[in-house]
Structures are given as structure tokens and as C-alpha cells.
Amino acid sequence: MPMVTVSISPQQAAGIRAAVDNGGYASSSEVVREALRLWDTARKLNEFRDDILDDDAPSGGRCVADMFADHEAERRRSA
Q: From the CA atom positions of the chain, what is the Rg in Å?
């Protein structure tokens, strides 16, 4: 698998560590891969929305961080 180095904030690093420490993920790489899958899905949904809505439609997009937080909350509720 290709390796990529990125810089993240201390808060983001703490969130990743907490997700692993809480047992929701096996590794920090797993957390980042899931976050990237969510980002990719959001990007594709936004492209789809842009294709079907006219330019005057209000934007209902959410940032990936919010989507990930909601996803994590749902994972905790269902665990």
C-alpha cells in the first residue's frame, strides 16, 4: 500500500488515538482510511447533487469532520 505523510492538528491526532484506544478501530491507519472513504463519498455526493440541482439551489453540504463525528457517534451508539 502506498504511504503518504500528512500533517494534522494535535486535536485531530488525539481524536485518532482516542478512536483506537476506545477499541473502535484496530489502528490509526484504519481511522484515516475510513475518514478518507467518508470524504470520497461526500465528494461524490456533492458532485451528484451539483449535477441534479441548478446553480441557484442552496448548498446543503457538510464538512467531512462533521460527517465523521456523526459516524463515530453512531458507531458508539450501536456498539
A: 15
pTM comes to 0.59
Measured CA to CA, the distance from residue 25 to residue 18 in angstroms comes to 9
Helical ranges in 22-63 per DSSP H: 28-52
User: What is the longest distance spanned by two Cα atoms in the chain?
Assistant: 45
Q: How many residues does the chain have?
A: 79
Q: Which residue range is the domain that position 40 belongs to?
A: 8-76
Domain count, the chain: 1
Q: Evaluate the CA torsion angle 6, 12, 39, 43 in order and state its sign.
A: negative
d(CA 60, CA 56): 12
Can you list the residues of the chain whose pLDDT is less than 70? Answer: 53-61
